[in-house]
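Quick one, probably user error.
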């Protein structure tokens, strides 16, 4: 996906207000490197920012990964920590944190501890009444890059997050770019296919 971002550098150099609020989808199968794609997207976008805009522009300094359940959250966090070094991409992996409580998003000093935060989507969305946090836009704005694992599992919630992430680019990693009825996902751009 690094080369795909570089090929589309003109697109990603456009004002964020013109390119956000869309789900950029990586349609990749199991074992194709979707987890490694998470930091790779950040590196590629930062390369474009530095090369084309210069050091004064904000960069991708924090990534939020959203998943549907705790077991997947824990697996992605573990894979992110190990796979970068396991495959020889870097000498050390990124700092990865688990969001186990939605209050984590309320503390900048906590969020500054890690480059990548992995959370269940429910930490962003659901409350006792099933409604989003009243400050969901503020929470999402803390992450210039948001990656949603398997967005087809809860498209209604995912699209609401995509719409509210006005300061972020949102990518989805999925092997099934369709909903439960077999219809192709809406409001997404098929960014890359494996």
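Nope, works fine. Designed sequence:
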């Amino acid at each position: 996906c690094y080369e795909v971002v570089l090929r589309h550098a003109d697109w990603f150099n456009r004002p964020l207000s013109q390119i956000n609020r869309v789900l950029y989808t990586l349609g990749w199968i199991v074992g194709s490197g979707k987890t490694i794609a998470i930091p790779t997207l950040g590196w590629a976008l930062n390369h474009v920012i530095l090369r084309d805009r210069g050091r004064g522009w904000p960069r991708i300094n924090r990534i939020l990964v959203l998943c549907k359940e705790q077991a997947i959250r824990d697996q992605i966090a573990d894979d992110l920590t190990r796979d970068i070094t396991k495959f020889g991409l870097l000498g050390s992996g990124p700092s990865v944190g688990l969001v186990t409580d939605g209050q984590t998003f309320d503390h900048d000093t906590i969020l500054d501890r890690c480059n990548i935060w992995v959370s269940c989507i429910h930490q962003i969305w659901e409350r006792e009444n099933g409604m989003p946090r009243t400050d969901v836009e503020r929470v999402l704005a803390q992450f210039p890059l948001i990656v949603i694992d398997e967005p087809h599992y809860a498209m209604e919630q995912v699209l609401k997050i995509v719409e509210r992430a006005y300061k972020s680019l949102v990518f989805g990693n999925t092997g099934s770019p369709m909903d439960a009825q077999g219809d192709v996902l809406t409001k997404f751009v098929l960014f890359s296919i494996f």
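The first strand starts at residue 23 and ends at 27.
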